[in-house]
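$ ./design --mode recover --in tokens.txt
reading tokens...
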């Protein structure tokens, strides 16, 4: 990993001891009730994970058919929620029993249309009362968990004049206080905060840079709660209370942003993306009515196209599925120190393509997006350390959806199935 600008020793040491700071939903510790889990960081503190798997892999508890798509599942109160698409005609919010896989209920809305790389995109966000989901054609839903009826719906394109993005609306709804925040993808309107009870817009930011597939997240910087969002025009930081822009950092621009910023704590963030964008680590601080930014280091070649890197014990674990570009192999699954040095890179041994990566019980779970192999790894900065592996999907399934984990159970989605695996030590 060349062309890095490395910070001074004092800042290096400070970053090494930081932990991610972000706001999460009020839910049980073993829930995974939104995109990337309770803190949107891809981590679960559940324990008791089996460190070895039997021949044939972990026990499959259930397997249900789904339509094509890339949206992940959420888990809350023993129920699984997935946004599906039916016959290019309907958005379908489906609820399953976590223990058995039985479908408990569904909500359907007629929305005809088809996309490149067809199907649903986002992960539902689940509270005690409601499920919030954003369909790929721009319909934001609030559905009652008891009655299974629609509480309210907003058509983002009709309301804000958004243009349909090539690969659809992909952001997962973000809850903050009594609002749900999504990007409108309109020319004049950026992020919008809707009242959770009736869907009224409570604030809207100015333009945040056009077509993006990134999900926003809330982080505490100084005394403010800040909605962070990546677009093709760079990083935007929006005051989560009122929609005012605090920062626009144009120094890092990805033409098709998908990966959300990884919080390292105390205003430090790691930004990464595909399409020859590379990665950058920045430091944000409160300054007057806005934010000040310092760039710590930059990786000109190596980037994670889809999935957010995981911070653990002072190191980042990233699926750098882009890099090389004629100057060497693609790094693949990589352990990165917080001064920008690669501790190790698996390259194509194994290749994980655009697969998901999460951390449970201090162990990494890596799903290869192309050949469908699930791997259990030590989160070890001293070297790639694989404990177990098993093929869970057939080759060529484009299993790029984010994984979810709760109550000892791992949920994985391909282009045709949602599977639940038991990963707890027997």
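writing sequence...
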């Amino acid at each position: 990993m060349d062309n890095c600008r490395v910070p001074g020793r004092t800042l290096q040491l400070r970053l090494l001891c930081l932990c991610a700071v972000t706001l999460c939903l009020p839910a049980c510790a073993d829930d995974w009730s939104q995109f990337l889990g309770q803190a949107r960081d891809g981590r679960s503190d559940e324990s008791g994970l089996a460190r070895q798997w039997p021949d044939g892999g972990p026990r499959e508890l259930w397997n249900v058919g789904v339509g094509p798509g890339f949206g992940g599942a959420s888990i809350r109160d023993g129920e699984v929620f997935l946004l599906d698409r039916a016959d290019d005609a309907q958005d379908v919010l489906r609820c399953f029993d976590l223990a058995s896989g039985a479908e408990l209920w569904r909500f359907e809305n007629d929305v005809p249309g088809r996309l490149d790389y067809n199907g649903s995109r986002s992960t539902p966000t689940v509270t005690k009362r409601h499920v919030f989901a954003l369909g790929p054609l721009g319909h934001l839903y609030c559905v009652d968990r008891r009655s299974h009826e629609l509480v309210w719906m907003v058509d983002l394109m009709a309301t804000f004049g958004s243009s349909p993005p090539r690969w659809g609306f992909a952001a997962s709804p973000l809850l903050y206080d009594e609002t749900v925040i999504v990007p409108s993808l309109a020319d004049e309107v950026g992020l919008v905060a809707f009242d959770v009870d009736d869907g009224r817009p409570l604030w809207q930011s100015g333009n945040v840079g056009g077509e993006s597939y990134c999900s926003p997240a809330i982080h505490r910087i100084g005394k403010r709660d800040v909605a962070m969002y990546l677009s093709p025009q760079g990083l935007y930081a929006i005051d989560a209370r009122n929609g005012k822009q605090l920062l626009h950092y144009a120094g890092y621009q990805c033409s098709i942003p998908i990966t959300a910023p990884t919080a390292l704590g105390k205003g430090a963030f790691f930004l990464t993306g595909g399409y020859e964008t590379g990665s950058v680590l920045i430091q944000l601080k409160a300054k007057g009515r806005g934010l000040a930014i310092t760039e710590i280091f930059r990786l000109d070649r190596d980037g994670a196209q889809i999935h957010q890197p995981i911070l653990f014990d002072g190191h980042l674990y990233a699926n750098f599925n882009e890099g090389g570009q004629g100057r060497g192999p693609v790094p693949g699954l990589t352990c990165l120190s917080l001064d920008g040095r690669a501790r190790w890179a698996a390259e194509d041994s194994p290749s994980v393509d655009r697969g998901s990566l999460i951390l449970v019980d201090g162990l990494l779970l890596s799903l290869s997006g192309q050949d469908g192999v699930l791997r259990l790894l030590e989160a070890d900065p001293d070297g790639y350390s694989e404990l177990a592996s098993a093929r869970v999907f057939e080759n060529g399934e484009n299993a790029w959806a984010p994984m979810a984990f709760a109550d000892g159970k791992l949920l994985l989605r391909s282009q045709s199935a949602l599977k639940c695996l038991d990963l707890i030590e027997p």
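exit 0
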